[in-house]
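Fresh eyes needed here. Kindly weigh in on this sequence plus C-alpha cells:
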Amino acid sequence: MSKRIQRVNELLKKEVSQLLLKEIEFPGDILATITRVQTRPDLRETVIFVSVMPEEKRDKILNLLTKRASFLQQKINKRLKMKFIPRIIFREETKTAEAGRIEEILEELKKGKE
C-alpha cells in the first residue's frame, strides 16, 4: 500500500470518527468504533470497518450508518480539500471478534497447563 493511500486512510478515519461523535446520534447503550479504513488505489471508494458493542445491535447500527453515508459524504466533502473524496461504504469489523476468540482460546490453553 502506498504512503498516499495510508495517509488518506488515516485522514478519513479521523474525520469520520469525529463526524460520528458529533453528527450521528446512537442510542445511549451503544458503542460504535471505527477500527480501520481501506481505500482503493484509484480513490473512488473507501470501506470503513465498524465494531459495535453490544453485538446484538450491530445490524441496526450498520443500517443506520449506511443510510447516513451520503450525509457523512457531504460533510467530508466540505471539510477536506482533496481532488477525489472516496465514496463511503460501511462494513462490519470481523477481525475484532476473531482476535477476541483467539484470546479466549489462549486463556483456555494457559489454564489447561496450570
Q: What stands out?
A: The CA atoms of residues 104 and 110 lie 10 Å apart. The radius of gyration is 17 Å. The chain has a mean pLDDT of 87.
